[in-house]
Amino acid sequence: MTIYNYRVMDHKGQYQEGTIEAEDIKSAANRLREQGLYVVKLDTNRRSLDLIDYFSSVKSIDLASLNQQLGVLVNAGIPLVSALEVVEKQTDNPKMQKAITSVKASLREGKTFYHSLKQHSNIFDSMMLNMVQAGELGGVLGNILFRLSEHYEREHEVKEKVKAAMTYPVLVLVMSVAAVIFMIIFILPVFAGMLGEMSNALPIPTKILISFSGILLNYWHLNLLILFSMSVSFILYSRSLTGRALVDKIRIGFPLLGDLHKKIIVARFCRTLGILLGAGVPILHALEVTSQTTDNSIFMQALTRCRDVVMDGKSMVKPLLDSGIFPYMVAHMAKVGEETGKLDVLLIQVGDYFQREVDRKMDNLSKLIEPAMIIIVGGLVGFLVLSMVLPMFTIISSF
């Protein structure tokens, strides 16, 4: 399928511009004519479209804004195509604008909103697609769009908090390592040359530092090759089934950060499953969609086992407990929800609870990071200073 740019004139003599996706230019022209449009210009501009795809991305906040605006307009009784035209003009993201234009063209051809969005599954995830489908079938699309807006807004808040918590320590660590490497490569060799005559009498820390400096300088090409090979090997291994399972197991078992990562996944699971069930999506399909939105293979395997058990007509509580990764509170509330018929409401409440736990841990983590970084940077600088000062004491004591 290729995306074509078009300029057409409708029956009122007004010009319209946009994009359409078709197998070839002839099919694109026929589809436009079937809509009663006179084709003025039709071509493809692959370079500009590729640049948009590569250099722009659709974030959670973009999806939140899209669903919020559409929800308001749809509930106000404005036709979906007209609502999309309004949103398209207010969207600054070029990739989103291109997708909205394509969705409008698909709607004009008589397709449903769900099928129109499904053509852009790289932008609109399975969560949004299934919620929209449930909203169309139930006649509550506007309310569903509001729920989606809240969901993506919370996803954006979580990502921003993680980013804010990690930006400072990562920046400090990178700058510190860069400064240390600069001193080892450019300053230490000069210092070592001055101490060349007494190399045998140098302290052990100084010898270690000078040896490390020599390895970096004399074998830099080999070091780069080893670093590149290790990086590629790790990426390839982490993409395999066994490698991904091992990496994901380490991520949820890592001290401090592992518990935080686990709570983020649990909060997302509870919220997503609760929203899907509340929208009328069948539980089997909702569990499948929820597992797809989970970026940890350990949790995905647990949810797959849970889905298999539910498919046999049994409760989802036991597989949640047997997994060993879901907190007892989640399984307990799921049991209460199944007995009372309010599983969706209770899951959303549990998701909110764990989200508050995530916020609290984020605040505590940011307070712990600063002293930890001071200790690490102080240790690096202290070792460098000690390695350079100790030979001075050796020279002084020799007189």
Summarize the structure in words.
The chain has 399 residues and is mostly helical. The protein contains 17 helices and 3 strands. A hairpin with a 5-residue loop joins β1 and β2. It is extended. The relative contact order is 0.08. The model has no long low-confidence stretch (mean pLDDT 82).
Q: How is the main sheet built? A: 3 strands, antiparallel
Give the tally of structural domains: 3
CATH H-level homologous superfamily name of the largest domain: Type II secretion system (T2SS), domain F
Query: Helical stretch count?
Result: 17
- The backbone outline, from C-alpha atoms, is extended
β content, as a range? Answer: 5-15%
Please identify, by name, the CATH architecture of the largest domain: Up-down Bundle
* Ends distance: 83 Å
pLDDT averaged residue by residue: 82
Question: What labels describe this entry?
Answer:
Receptor-associated Protein; 6% strand; extended; Ubiquitin-like (UB roll); 77% helix; 399 residues; mainly alpha; single chain
Quick structural overview:
With 399 residues, the chain is mostly helical. It has helices at residues 25-34, 46-55, 60-75, 80-90, 94-108, 113-118, 126-138, 141-194, 204-218, 220-239, 241-253, 257-278, 283-292, 297-311, 317-323, 328-340, 343-398, and strands at residues 2-9, 15-22, 38-43. It folds into three domains: 2-54, Ubiquitin-like (UB roll), CATH 3.10.20; 59-124, Receptor-associated Protein (Up-down Bundle), CATH 1.20.81.30; 168-399, Receptor-associated Protein (Up-down Bundle).
